[in-house]
């Protein structure tokens, strides 16, 4: 009986651990500072608004609102597509770019606006791929 309970718990926990998004990454021969500047410029060109950045650690987070998406839920407001980007110098002299695309649904609840992470949308995945391609060279 204990064996069955442990098996059921293991199956349940493994189902909860599915990734909502996977990072997109590449390497470039450009320097870290030039690559970071390219990333910040391209985010604006893709329609994202920077929400935070760390010039020392070469990280930036940006959001693009999708106000056209609709849901049959009266509490639903809009979709937030977010990109978290990290640029780092590698030991071999190259620079790595890692972009984590994420999608959040915003709802209006009794306690105010609430974001719930969802599986990354095709739009944010495409934007992450474009960002990596544009700053690769």
Characterize this entry briefly.
With 137 residues, the protein is α+β, with helices and mostly antiparallel strands. The chain is built from 3 helices and 6 strands; from the N terminus they run αβαβββββα.
Protein described:
The protein is α+β, with helices and mostly antiparallel strands and 137 residues long. Helices cover 31% and strands 40% of the residues. The chain is built from three helices and six strands, in the order αβαβββββα. The chain has helices spanning 2-16, 32-45, 122-134, and strands at 24-28, 49-54, 59-66, 76-89, 95-109, 112-118. Strands 1, 2, 3, 4, 5 and 6 form a six-stranded antiparallel β-sheet that branches. Strand 4 and strand 5 (95-109) form a beta hairpin. The protein is elongated, with a radius of gyration of 19 Å. The termini are far apart. The model is unreliable at 2-7 and 10-14 (pLDDT under 50).
Task: Using brief descriptors, characterize the structure shown.
137 residues; alpha+beta; 6-stranded antiparallel sheet; 3 helices; 6 strands; elongated; disordered N terminus
| Class of secondary structure makeup | alpha+beta
Continuous helix count: 3
User: How large, in whole angstroms, is the Cα Rg?
Assistant: 19 Å
Distance between the termini: 59 Å
Element pattern in H and E = HEHEEEEEH
Please write out the topology.
Blueprint: H1 2-16, E1 24-28, H2 32-45, E2 49-54, E3 59-66, E4 76-89, E5 95-109, E6 112-118, H3 122-134
């Amino acid at each position: 009986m204990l064996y069955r309970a442990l098996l059921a718990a293991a199956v349940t926990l493994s189902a909860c651990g599915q990734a909502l998004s996977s990072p997109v990454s590449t390497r470039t021969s450009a320097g870290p500072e030039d690559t970071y500047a390219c990333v910040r410029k391209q985010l604006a060109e893709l329609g994202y608004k920077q929400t935070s950045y760390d010039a020392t650690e070469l990280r930036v987070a940006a959001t693009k609102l999708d106000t056209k998406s609709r849901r049959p839920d009266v509490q639903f407001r809009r979709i937030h597509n977010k990109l978290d980007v990290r640029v780092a110098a590698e030991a071999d002299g190259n620079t790595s770019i890692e972009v984590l695309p994420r999608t959040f649904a915003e709802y209006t609840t009794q306690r105010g606006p609430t974001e719930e992470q969802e599986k990354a949308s095709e739009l944010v995945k495409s934007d992450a791929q474009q960002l990596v391609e544009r700053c690769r060279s």
